[in-house]
Amino acid sequence: MRVMVIGRGGREHSLAQTLAKSPNVSTIYAVPGNAGMEQVAECVAIPETDQAQLVAFAKENEVDLTIVGPENPLLDGLVDRFQEAGLKVFGPSSEAALIEGSKHFAKQLMAKYEIPTAAYEAFTEVEPAKAYIRGKGAPIVVKADGLAAGKGVVVAETVDEACEAVEDMLGNGQFGDASREIVVEEFLAGEEFSLMAFVNGRNVYPMITAKDHKRAFEGDQGPNTGGMGAFAPVPDLAESDYQFAVSSILQPTADAMVEEGRPFVGILYAGLIQTSAGPKVIEFNARFGDPETQVVLPLLENDLDQVFVDVLEGRDPELRWSRSTCAGVVVASSGYPGAYEKGRPVPVIESNHVFVTHAGTEKAEQGYVSSGGRVLLVGAQAERLPEALENVYDYMQQFDGNKDFFYRRDIGLSSIAPASSRHVK
């Protein structure tokens, strides 16, 4: 097979690394890709936004399957364009991708189909939103309705902080069109986890669980980011809660999208929280999570290309998972998720104990240099979570004292326990 992966981040590098293991895959095109992806793929300098050029490249190079990684091309209708051209593509239509593109739409869908989530209201004006917040009190959550690269969420500890977030988003247009509308919802207490599934209409094939760490700094302090590290599976999640998440959240959501005339085909990502009343939805994404993908896919024992084809053609891919665990820690540019400098030399030392997925790197004369906020992820697979984390953090010492980069030193530490096989099928 000739496979094209559209995107340039760590998620796409992980997809390419996993596809490269398959004996069925002869060529991988990473479009546009990043410096690290050149190790396993041919990078092609076409922007994710240039639909006509992407379709033309796929035709000219007889690409058998295209996987769309990022959310923006999905919402812009890239999958629809490929389908119109008669090309095999994995990902949701623009109508189905709205489950990520509009938090208000997702909340309305969950309310209509009784999918467990936080109580909420949506607003387009500042004062009504502030009045609602004052009536509810804090802690409370303020979210930009549209796409904001994982940064459009404020978990406010005080009413003043929540009102300031409303002013920033609605009053000052902090996230542009993405914050013309906001969702204000109740704060849910509990442990968060992620659950992704391959979906085709009503057919749902769940993966193993993962846990992302969104806050920038240790102790879950600082602003939200796109993710500072992850591990899989979540060792202390009960099997009954996993099954509830599949049967009462993922499956009903896939069914609801069919009922709404927006059948979902692709990766349905549920960001969940384990509350005292059971798992509830924090958010939905319409694609692989980042950095969860980087720790979930290394544990997949199937050939990934065959999984994609099986799901697209309506067959059960019969997913098989390793009984080990996988952990990954993100190296970020100093200042991220705010302003940061690019072009800083990135130390990348080869090691048999870890793997590296690149996110924001470029090639220069002296080697790799940074080109983004999240620069790379260092991951390791081991029988137990503590062993995987030890291997990762041993490697990360090369970044200590380097003022150009930072990383969290507490990824996975709150869940140190023997890795469980309870989600292995």
Automatic annotation (TrEMBL):
Gene3D superfamilies: 3.40.50.20, ATP-grasp fold, A domain, ATP-grasp fold, B domain, Phosphoribosylglycinamide synthetase, C-terminal domain
GO biological process: 'de novo' IMP biosynthetic process; purine nucleobase biosynthetic process
Known cofactor(s): Mg(2+); Mn(2+)
InterPro entries hit by this protein: ATP-grasp, ATP_grasp_subdomain_1, PreATP-grasp_dom_sf, PRibGlycinamid_synth_ATP-grasp, PRibGlycinamide_synth, PRibGlycinamide_synth_C-dom, PRibGlycinamide_synth_C_sf, PRibGlycinamide_synth_CS
EC number: 6.3.4.13
Molecular function GO terms recorded: ATP binding; metal ion binding; phosphoribosylamine-glycine ligase activity
Catalytic activity: 5-phospho-beta-D-ribosylamine + glycine + ATP = N(1)-(5-phospho-beta-D-ribosyl)glycinamide + ADP + phosphate + H(+)
Domain (ATP-grasp) ranges: 107-313
Sorted UniProt keywords: ATP-binding, Ligase, Manganese, Metal-binding, Nucleotide-binding, Purine biosynthesis
Pathway(s) of this molecule: Purine metabolism; IMP biosynthesis via de novo pathway; N(1)-(5-phospho-D-ribosyl)glycinamide from 5-phospho-alpha-D-ribose 1-diphosphate: step 2/2
Pfam family membership, one: GARS_N
Signal peptide boundaries: none
NCBIfam families attached to this UniProt entry: purD
Family designation: Belongs to the GARS family.
Protein name according to UniProt: Phosphoribosylamine--glycine ligase
Species this chain originates from: Halobacillus locisalis
Upper lineage: Bacteria, Bacillati, Bacillota, Bacilli, Bacillales
